[in-house]
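Protein of interest.
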Amino acid sequence: MIPAMLDAHFSLLNYAFYSKNYHPIIIENEEGITDIGLKYVNNEMCYPAILNKKEEKIMLKNERKIVDILIKYSDYLFVLAITILSIYIRNRLLPIVSGDANYFLLPWYEEIKNSGGLDALSKQTGDYCILYQTLIALFTYLPLKPLVTYKVISCIFDYLLALACVMVIRELTENRLYMIWTFVLVVCSPIVIFNSSAWAQCDSIYATFCAWTIYFCIKEKYSFMFIAYGVALSLKLQAIFLLPFIFIIYLIKKQFSIIKIFYVPFMMIVLSGVGIIYGRKIWDVFLIFKNQTQAYNSSLTSNYPGLWAIFSTEMADLNIKYSTAATMISICIIGMIFYYLMKKMSNINKEQILQLAFIFVYIAVLTMPHMHERYGYLYEIFAIMLALLYKRTIIPCIILQLITFFTYSSYLFKQEHMLTVLAVINIGIFIYYFWIFFVQKENEKTENLCNNN
């Protein structure tokens, strides 16, 4: 900014500065400039100094306006800055080729492409669900590198997942700051970033629709809840971990008919419609899940620090032998928690909906055998939202993120870690969450009732 003391001559300075790639702003004189200048400068000062002081005030006034605008829109600017930064981080991780990408995802992509794109839907490729296989088949027609295709799809859903979580938080609190931090923490979570942009996995896609399932449950729009859940299950079997949550909502709230659950298979069939048109059978939509469960059963745990990481051995035959027993034990544990909560809870408020979803997904992944390190993705997203609502869960949430990051680094970067130690910590964190959400609160209610009597 240059104060204009001689209007006819100072405008010529523009050309001199432009020649050196500078872009000056000549502050033009305004009506009353002398009077305002005299207000701040002794009248014995030279006339140019009086004008210069006035123009300085104008500059400060303009700066103040800019600062006011920045403050007014600081929320949007902060979110925009974080979004740009998170996109940059993801872009830097795109060249990483994980083992899954190298041995499974990329060969499957080439198989789909070489089979004619959509024509490849007539048969099963890898262990994709038909809907996801359809998405990949469509992307084979675009001039994109296979690895970039996988990662871009998942990265886009990272942000859609964050927006879905914002909608959930919006229903639970009117605090605008919580909504902003929800978006920021989800898109900047190391688990979310590495899952999509480094590993090329699609957990953010199914998790997005699981978050919408929770949202519609809070809104008591149960038809949409089952539709969203059907989409999630069409994309990944891990959405099944939400099923106990849906059943306890049904039993306690008594606000919808169990018949609505048929929206789920209906949506799965509809979303697999392109594959069915190209020759797949309707029952293939569901048989894929059976094949998936049988494909990864050589170990009681696949790098996930759950209950069976404490007992798992390197001997595949022993792990297979104990697999059924481990599954039955898991069902019993989930069943006991289900029964306890059903008896303790006479009603379910909005906050408890998120708590229940978190607890049931967490306990299912924690106790079921054959779990991969990525299967905790959904409850880790729920933990971020809970940490914003309940300050005493901030530290457990951070520990959960670190545990998973350690297991991710073990696979992606070949870093060693003590899976058994992480499993013990993980179990302890679950007990803590369950205690503060469903045991401690009940004890407080009992004490208050006794004191009132």
Observations:
- The chain has two domains: 2-72, 74-452.
- The CA atoms of residues 41 and 49 lie 8 Å apart.
